[in-house]
Design brief:
The protein is mainly alpha-helical. It is built from 5 helices and 3 strands, in the order H-E-H-E-H-E-H-H. It has a 3-stranded parallel sheet with strand order 2-1-3, sandwiched between helices.
Length: about 150
């Protein structure tokens, strides 16, 4: 049987493997690693977020709490998991402020890739009526004038 020159390329095309189909993400549960202790406000927000993701993706999104070490325990746990179905949910400070204030961190912040902001938190500063300062700059000045007399929580 003799093949024409036009049929030869078609025969070659039939020999090519079928084009790979991309799998939808996620195709299995996505683990969320959290540096927050159970029951904190941030952890509650994170669980609501994880529940919404689970409904949207049709996959479980379990939250694993790894509190302690200023987020270092959770960060190291996250980096130690060899899985592409994991996320680290944290305050931005664990990757921005803490590395500049704690020497010899057990992790490098550049090993993380920020994805999105989930929530915005607000911080309030309050004092007793007889504190002696009515605004933040007055409170800072009072604390500087009396070193060791104030604790910030």
């Amino acid at each position: 049987m003799k093949l024409s020159r036009r049929a030869l390329p078609m025969l070659g095309a039939l020999a090519l493997p079928l084009r790979a189909q991309a799998q939808a993400f996620p195709n299995r549960p996505v683990r969320v690693i959290s540096p927050f202790a159970a029951g904190l406000g941030a952890e509650t927000t994170l669980r609501l977020f994880a529940d919404a993701l689970a409904r949207r993706w049709g996959q479980p999104v379990p939250v694993e709490n790894r509190p302690g070490g200023d987020g270092g325990i959770a960060a190291m746990a996250f980096l130690g998991i060899n899985d592409d179905h994991k996320v680290f949910c944290s305050f931005s400070g664990h990757l921005t402020v803490i590395p500049s204030t704690i020497p010899n961190l057990p992790y490098r912040p550049e090993r993380f890739a920020p994805i999105s902001t989930v929530a915005i938190d607000h911080i309030a500063i309050a004092a007793m009526p007889g504190f002696g300062a009515n605004d933040l700059s007055s409170a800072v000045a009072l604390a500087r004038a009396q070193p060791g007399s104030f604790a910030w929580a």
